[in-house]
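Run log // design_07
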């Protein structure tokens, strides 16, 4: 017979092992992000690609993969799906015929704007346990972890 109890061990483990806590939090946030993205009709990777292309212009799939930390083999499928939907176009890179330049289309920009409009509410819901100041602090700390060469 099992009874529902308030977790007592995991909070202790999380305090002792921030790596474990971060892995579990990452998994939970990742699941929430995929569910949210699914309601928007775009995968998380697809939305990130559109966002980066809109911000920086045409890029190679390799650059997108490296910058967004998406496996190169997964990036091919993401770009394939976006191209089929008319949100990006791929053309041979005129400076390196072995690679493709990926460019966002007007339809892709429109799709991105609609998807991005729902992000603030999703973030508020997902991070409801944190104050605005704690969210800013978490963002800053994660930035340090993800770019250790720039951390002081």
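design_07 sequence
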């Amino acid at each position: 017979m099992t009874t529902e109890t308030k977790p007592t061990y995991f909070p202790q483990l999380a305090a002792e092992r921030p790596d474990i806590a971060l892995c579990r939090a990452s998994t939970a946030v990742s699941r929430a992000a995929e569910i949210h993205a699914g309601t928007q009709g775009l995968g998380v990777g697809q939305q990130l690609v559109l966002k980066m292309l809109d911000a920086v212009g045409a890029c190679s799939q390799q650059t997108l993969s490296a910058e967004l930390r998406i496996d190169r083999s997964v990036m091919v499928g993401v770009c394939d799906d976006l191209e089929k939907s008319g949100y990006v176009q791929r053309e041979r890179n005129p400076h390196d015929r072995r690679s493709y330049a990926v460019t966002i289309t007007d339809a892709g920009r429109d799709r991105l704007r609609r998807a991005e409009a729902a992000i603030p509410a999703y973030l508020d819901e997902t991070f409801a346990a944190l104050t605005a100041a704690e969210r800013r602090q978490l963002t800053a700390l994660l930035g340090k972890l993800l770019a250790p060469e720039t951390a002081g």
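The radius of gyration is 19 Å.
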